[in-house]
Hints:
- By secondary structure, this protein is of the alpha/beta class.
- The chain has 2 domains: 4-97 and 161-235, 3-Layer(aba) Sandwich (Rossmann fold), CATH 3.40.50; 104-159, no CATH class.
- The chain is built from 11 helices and 6 strands.
- It has helices at residues 19-25, 43-51, 64-75, 104-116, 118-130, 137-147, 152-164, 168-171, 191-200, 216-219, 221-235, and strands at residues 4-8, 30-34, 57-62, 80-86, 178-183, 204-209.
- The protein has a 6-stranded parallel sheet with strand order 2-1-3-4-5-6, sandwiched between helices.
- The protein is globular, with a radius of gyration of 16 Å.
Amino acid sequence: MKATMIFLSGWAYPSDEYAALSARLASHVEVRFFDHRSFPRYDDDVCALVAQADEPVWLAGWSMGSIIALQVAHRMPDALAGLILLASTPCFCAQEDFSAGTPVASVRALAKTLKVTPALAMRTFLKMAVKPAKLGKADLERRVTNALQFDKDMLQAGLKYLETTDIRGDVAAITTPTLLIHGEDDTIIPLEAGHWLHRHIPNSIPAFLSDTGHDLPVTHVAATADIMISFKEGLS
């Protein structure tokens, strides 16, 4: 019987954006993809989901989903077989003592644009997410439409979560074997955040991808999936 993996999506990414990654992983693990609509209470909802499993599960998360995964790993270490974090950080916004984050002003500006011109906000975000790659016009508009499936209040709540969440104080207590996949050219969560996590999570392995940005589970499916499979099989 294949192991179960729960994959938590990032902000404004519906779970069907990961169809190619799901197909690549399918022969190795049973992956269940969840987006923000499935965990509106963030780590509380994901802890309840993990608790339903009969045996330890693999927990993966990308971007906002990876922060939630870190919180779950801190709260429920015995419930996890392994932790896979893609484009992760313990603190999304830069602080006086943490430079590896997005400026708070940028998050607030995105929230303001989202209120007035939602499609423009999504185009801006998605173009940044895929850098250094570029989206064709049709693919960009398809993704904008998909992102706007989310309720506007939920999108605003997600931005507030990203602005205010800081779990740096919890990270060193995480004991679950952890894989850190990060794009070296990520313009949303800088690579230094991945280095920070590697220094502070005792049982962690880094996998940093060159010529890769924030959107790695969608734009770099093969490389991402192969690293995930190799890590899982190495611990099985």
